[in-house]
Amino acid sequence: MSDILTRRLALLGESAYLPLLTQCLHGIERETLRVDSQGNLAQTPHPAALGSALTHPQITTDYSEALLEFITPTAQDPAQVIDALDTIHRFAVRQLGEELLWSPSMPCVLPEEEQIPIAEYGHSNIGRLKHIYRRGLAVRYGRTMQCIAGIHYNFSLPEALWPMLKAAENDTRSDRDYQSARYIALTRNFRRYSWILMYLFGASPALDVGFMRGRPHQLETFDADTLYLPYATSLRMSDLGYQSAAQASLTPCYNDLKSYTESLRLAVGTPYAPYAEIGTHRDGEWVQLNTNILQIENEYYSSIRPKRVTRTGERPVQALIARGVQYVEVRCLDINPFLPMGIDLAESRFLDAFLLFCAMEESPPLNNECRECTHNFTKVVREGRKPGLHLQHHGAPVALMDWADTLLGCIDRCAKLLDAANGGDAYSRAVDEQRMKFIDPSLTPSAQVLAEMRTHAESFADFALRQSKAHAEYFRQQPLAPEKREQFERMAQQSLTEQHELEASDEGDFDAFVASYQASILGTLSV
């Protein structure tokens, strides 16, 4: 533990400041494919009973019409966030009829590429833009890759905490600049240490053979229908998951907010020759929003994003430049197929302690560490449970187990501070629960997936379907209270009304709308 971490935690532990740690904000976004009772990708439209995917605040779609995304409201108590996610699941399962929510991150048996339905959002300009953006993802990366699902964990420390730390450290920057710099520092430490999350929560060591579409790979054969790696933790986060030659040059090391936003601004404004060859139109129809490295900022694949809530009509980069970083979005978490919601309260509390550690620990610029961070992360996602595995730390080999023990000691200090603020010992117990996975790697979700498949002599797809059915039964056995169900039904109907009103009031040509949208980021580039 660095001296800086010790001093900062001691300051937070003072009676005047400790209550601030009860004011952290949390939010979860969970993606999941809709499948039929046989485990095939649903070909049905987004159910009207769930509301409008364009305007519903808690139930939408991601890439595919069949890829649902559940978004919780934010709350200070992570237990409330988990409860909110549970409520969304119970409502959705009831409305889906015979369809199921696919339990893991890696997709079900998929149809041919062209039969994977791209999400539709109606005929308003913004709805069409969202659809064309996804068509662009299809021509750039293929539809198959876009069917991978994950969990995003949003986290912020209270706004009042940063000026207190700034004053204690005699920092002369403005409150906004100091807060942004500290979130960027958190992000750097996340890059250094997030391999530990892959070991603990990675849950995708196997995939359906059809996912590879005949592409060359280095996976092993589990059975006729399944490929895997014996010590993998998260093939989702390996180069078999999200990958892009165009984005290979986009490796912001988060040394400051300006360099991060600059890299994204340039990417959404810089043409990329292979995309230019495709063009924006084919047979008179839009196929992508532009021919630049990124169509929009959210196309950048990263394990964590510094973020700021946007205002109406504002783009993410514009919000960051104008008002600084407000929270972080952790994007590397697999869906745990053994958990009905893919995540539970213990994981959430560990994440809080881990992110507090990343925020308070010393965080020098990465510079030459970037490659080492990527190496460690990649090694753990592909062979994290391999006995005797070593990673790189400041250019020297270090045993994964030894480094994990050191990190867990620091994270446990943060957990005890959160317990002191919130009462009880739930955060410390969450760390102890994760520590057991290093003592016994068979307790990791990735090991448990393979063990279940072996025990039942089943393919990945059969295992995932069995879990999906079990989760559906779990939610159906405990339906929502009538008043809560009616609240969600009203929310769904209201979202449909809002979409209709938006479409009725929309003005202007779509091509001009896209041009204006593109110009908004180009205008930012000139600042």
Would you write up a description of this structure?
It catalyses: L-cysteine + L-glutamate + ATP = gamma-L-glutamyl-L-cysteine + ADP + phosphate + H(+). This is Glutamate--cysteine ligase. The protein has 527 residues and is of the alpha+beta class. The protein has one domain (3-525): Creatine Kinase, Chain A, domain 2, CATH 3.30.590. Helices cover 46% and strands 11% of the residues. It has 17 helices and 14 strands. The strands form four sheets. Strands 1, 2, 3, 4, 5, 11 and 12 form a seven-stranded antiparallel β-sheet that branches. Strands 6-8-7 form a three-stranded antiparallel β-sheet, with no helix packed on it. α5 (175-193) crosses α10 (345-360) and α6 runs parallel beside α11.
Going by CATH, the architecture would be 2-Layer Sandwich
CATH class: Alpha Beta
The helix fraction, in percent, is 40-55%
- Radius of gyration, Cα only, in angstroms? 23 Å
Number of domains: 1
The percentage of residues in β strands lies in: 5-15%
The average pLDDT value, as a whole number, equals 95
CATH topology: the name is: Creatine Kinase, Chain A, domain 2
Structural class: alpha+beta
Q: N- to C-terminal separation?
A: 41 Å
Number of helices: 17
Main beta sheet, described?
A: 7 strands, antiparallel
Shape: globular
pLDDT < 50 stretches: none
Question: How many extended strands?
Answer: 14
